[in-house]
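Reviewer 2 asked us to include a model.

Predict the structure of this chain.
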Amino acid sequence: MGYQICNRCVMDTSDLEIQFDHLGNCNHCNNYFNNFTKLQYQGETSDKIIRDLVKKIKDTGRGRQYDCLIGVSGGVDSSYVAFLVKELGLRPLAVHMDNGWDSIEAVENIKNICNKLDIDYQSYILNWHEFKDIQLSILKSSIPEVEIPTDVAIAAILHKVAAENGIKYIIGGGNLATEGILPDSWFYNPKDATLLKAIQRKYGTVPMKDFPLFDYKKEIYYKFVKGIKMVYLLNYLPFSKEDAISTLKDKLDWKEYGRKHYESKYTSFVQSYIQPVKFNIDYRRATLSSQICFGETTRERALNELKEVSYDIETVPLQKKYVCKKLNISVVEFDRIMKLPIKTYKDYPNNQRKLEFIYAIYRNFFKKPIV
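Predicted model (structure tokens):
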């Protein structure tokens, strides 16, 4: 199709699977308003869900040192979750997955949050030699889901630590306000271990020995054998990004680090440069479209922001050199990788059909709210 942008949000045909109705509104914002708004804060109904949830968490954690687990990255969402769980009287254990790419601001934020809120903290440091090789393999594969290794490691570590401590609830920072819209063509299921292993076998130079894998088998084990649940607290509260940032700054000396997920130097480079330049994927569109639907911003403001390129032209050469040095490749090699033909997960062995089948069964037989 020719170029088209949604009349209501700012998603466009950079999502190759986007669909528009007769009003010119896209399937993403239609789905948001038809389905996701039911999961947002609903006043007393949501307040009761929170009260019941807090009681369940406290009951399952009785007699243990912790009653819930939170992942901390130093970003807005996870930092605000840490603040909220303490306000709700819960006893969290904070876990950080250190993949070697944390910004200075992120490290300071984690330190301040845990110290000021008196939260016990564990840091899980990945095998850097192995992890950087996996990251480089994903880059060479030319699939747009560049952050699969990090997404997988986070899920694996959070569930592993929860199980080790007898914790039944992991409280995540995911929320519909900023993440309600994410095209399938931009983001394939990171839990497909078959895909990750195949790419590492093809492009990697070291075997995956220490890397914490997380696939559907482990998810089933942790969910149904260990009874661990993922909870997205921010969807049941009147969450405002601006208010959250203000609270964090005032109470926890929290420092800003830039756009969404820029607490990681690698993620910031991936989302501002690699994905827009190579794959024509600008994650700002998805985030801004979510915020438009949520009422956090206007379409006009979003369009004005998108007029600016996603990366800083003056600093991107330095960022590129930094990333290449960390990955132990030359800038020339990186530029060669950027010019490789674009591929998708379908170009490699994968478990798409099996995963779709399993999740379809779960949705049909275990129809439950997010909590």
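The two ends are 39 Å apart (CA to CA). The chain is about 50% helix and 5% strand. We have added this to the supplementary material.
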